[in-house]
Amino acid sequence: MTVYLTPPCTEPVRAAIRAGDLGMITTPAQGNRIEPDYPTLAFDNGCFGNGYPGDTEYLTWLDRNKAHAPRALFATAPDVFTGAEDGSDAEATIDRSLPFFPRIRDLGYPAALVFQVGCEDFPEHLPWNDFDVAFIGGTTAWKCGPEGRDMIREAQDRGKKVHVGRVNSEARYRRFAQLGVDSVDGTYITYGPDQLLPDVLAWVRGYRDQLPLFAA
């Protein structure tokens, strides 16, 4: 089952996270309280946008929350995203992330590498032994195209968990759920929780209810 992760922006959303219908994703800038009865969590660095606090501050934040690490799907190593289509983000991300993997693991979290545009050009040279989760980032066109699909399969074939970021539509959720990814995240709910929470719950439950049909 593909878990949908969202910021816990209202009490109904928090209730859905407690019930296990959704998972929580948080960044240092969000400042969301992590409740002890949230069964599924993920820790993102906030590099997409302007939410990254700095290397020391990020590790301090993870350390402060390490009691929650046993329930965490991952914590992302810092990455580089410029929206480039020439592969420069992939190499820059690996260089930036490598020193963080052992430190994230030492705090008890599964370490995630953010896959960026261009990593499909050298999959055999990715530091597979150094991280635990493949976080599919990159541009929308890349992650939703054949390159993103191929990197999902590459990671799965190597026994890695796979997460996909910025999943803000039912079509995109269904695409990645059908590819068998372990989790996705999006901010869709935050733009109108009362109206949009039922939408996301319907995506998840509708796909879950169809799984026996796919198996058959």
Provide a descriptive summary of the structure in words:
- The protein has one domain: TIM Barrel (Alpha-Beta Barrel).
- It is α/β, with parallel strands linked by helices.
- Strands 1-2-3-4-5-6-7-8 form an 8-stranded parallel beta barrel, surrounded by 4 helices.
- Helix content is 38%, strand content 15%.
- It contains 8 helices and 8 strands.
- Helix 1 links the parallel strand 1 (3-6) and strand 2 (23-26).
Structural class computed from helices and strand pairing: alpha/beta
Distance between the termini: 16 Å
Q: Give the topology string: H per helix, E per strand.
A: EHEEHEHHEEHHEHEH
Report helical residue fraction.
Answer: 25-40%
Strand order of the largest sheet: 1-2-3-4-5-6-7-8
Largest sheet: 8 strands, parallel, barrel
What's the overall average pLDDT, rounded? 95
Please identify which CATH superfamily we are dealing with.
Phosphoenolpyruvate-binding domains
* Count of helix runs: 8
Q: Provide the β-strand percentage band.
A: 5-15%
CATH topology-level name: TIM Barrel
Low-confidence runs: 212-216
Count of β-strands: 8
General form: globular
Radius of gyration: 16 Å
* Number of separate structural domains: 1
CATH top level is Alpha Beta
CATH 2nd-level architecture: Alpha-Beta Barrel
